[in-house]
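Section: Multi-chain targets

For targets with more than one molecule, the full set of components is provided together so that the structure can be written out for the assembly as a whole rather than chain by chain. Components appear in the order listed by the source. The example entry contains three components.
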Amino acid sequence: MDGTAFLARVGAYHEAGWRLALINVTTVLPPTAAHGRAPVAEATTAVEAPGVFEIAWAFANGGEFETIREQILAGEAVPSISEFFGAAFLYENEIRELFGVNVTGIGVDLKGQLYKTATKVPFSHSAIKARLEAAAAGAVKP
Amino acid sequence: MANPLNLPMVRRSLRNLVSRPVTRRYPTEIRPRFAGARGTIEFDVDTCVFCMLCARRCPAAAITVSREDRYFAIEQLTCIGCGVCVEVCNKGSLTMSVNSRAGHTRAEVGPQGQRPGHEEWRKPAPAAEALVGS
Amino acid sequence: MKRTVIPFGPQHPVLPEPLVLDLVLEDEKVVDAIPTIGYIHRGLEMMVERVEYTEMGFVVERICGICSFMHGMGYCVSLESIMNVEVPERAGWLRLIWAEISRIQSHLLWLGLGADAFGFENLFMHCWRMREQILDVFEKTTGGRIIHSVNRIGGVKRDISDSELAAILAELQELGAAFKETARVFRTDPSIAHRLGGVGVLSMQDARAVDAVGPMARASGIATDIRLIGANYYDRIELQPVTETDGDCLARVLVRMREIDQSIDIVRQAIGKMPKGEGQAIETKVRGLPSGEVFTRLEQPRGEVLYYVKANGTKNLERFRARTPTFANIPAMIKLVKGCDLADVPNIILTIDPCISCTER
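Its structure, encoded as tokens over all components, is:
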């Protein structure tokens, strides 16, 4: 993703007085039979491609609501928006700890101490795949 | 700055001192549950046809139904009292009563892995005459 | 000057839920606060992988006991947007009424906790005694005091008859009249004024800079309220956001007290405007699987809650995110805690109305 262009857009929202509402990450998994969707033919033979994350930065201003969406690869650096929106540090620490998104330059860096989870990075591509495969193999409803 | 001698709560406290308590003397005085309160699930084995809809729709997976064994079981302590099983049952075998779930004091696991709070019913096969133990 | 680090939490008498703040102190003044959460992180968002979308509503309403109704409502409203389901009018109004009653109960709970935080246990008991009447209303109408399980995708599961609604309104108005005495205590008692007045001041500029939501922002003069957007039948209700200008803890107490009266008035308006009569439809049957994504915003008692739901055409949702108002207010809390006295820390933490269960899901 183009860091400077992205920060320019965020800056524009900040100038116009918008409020940061949410930074959300969705782990995008290629469709496989493990979670009930038709498998993509090439997926079984292709080299394991790096996972894709879909990030949405949501801004609100009274009744108006807009989002900036970006698709990034796992490991790609994402700039922090803490210089414009100080409150972003909480969201960015969370997405780094739960998803493994590489956010750089967070204003208040909690160094992985925000959540205490049994599985580190529970929403990474490998962790989700492992859980879906375990569920399909065990066929156990929780 | 507020007047330090103005203590508005004093009047209320003195009134409370001489009036009846607002709390109930539980357990000697028990308030009856309101009609429609979500309490425990009760099952009538005579009307059940073992269609297994309730087991499929239970969000907590608290219900086990077996058509071959004519067996229905519910883990009362896993049940969240949502009432979905009552809604989907076509035969009216399941009802939500206002009683609280019975306390279970023993924590042992049954022979088929039944957990505390487990309640099961078996319906004898139509032609069988022998008693089926529960 | 020598600095000491004192951990505030995870168990503390004033905290309703576990939260850790490592307070860096110089003498009695707090210089820095480092939050750690995760003591009540149950991974509820991860449950979308295992729980079907029809059942996820029950999980979502159990994110928190205080905000339970609006979580369930927000989830159902999001799924209804994705699946293009039209909710019957009476169901929409019933949800609004239950949501406002839930707001009254949440504010009474908070007022009690706030009083307990600075040692006024008598007042705490009074607020919670009044709250019991609201919980009885919930038990009569939904079957449960805290977890209601009445929201379904497509409507609600139980109806409230018109006579019952009139009785509930009479009870709420009686409660509102009785609450005036408690409100007077909060407004005029000198110990409350001393403990809360001028403590934790958040100016309007700072409130904007930290993106505060809900009563935190409204007490600093920002007239923001998601109900003004008008979704879910709120456009048929006349309401003005309750604001104060001082921005201190006492102002936030006053905002929440006035919102109780506002909610009773909204329930009165709603009962007047909803379609009357027996036997009306309250649930639309839902068919098919959801596919698409939506952002839904509601005004919970603590502020703006944001739900992001993404569905991919299977029985399991792909992503469910609930960004609760306490999550958005934590930066505000940390900003307020820096520079205050140690004795004021419990009051400041409580002033954001922390619902850590919601924050950590």
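Chain C has one domain: 43-326+342-360.
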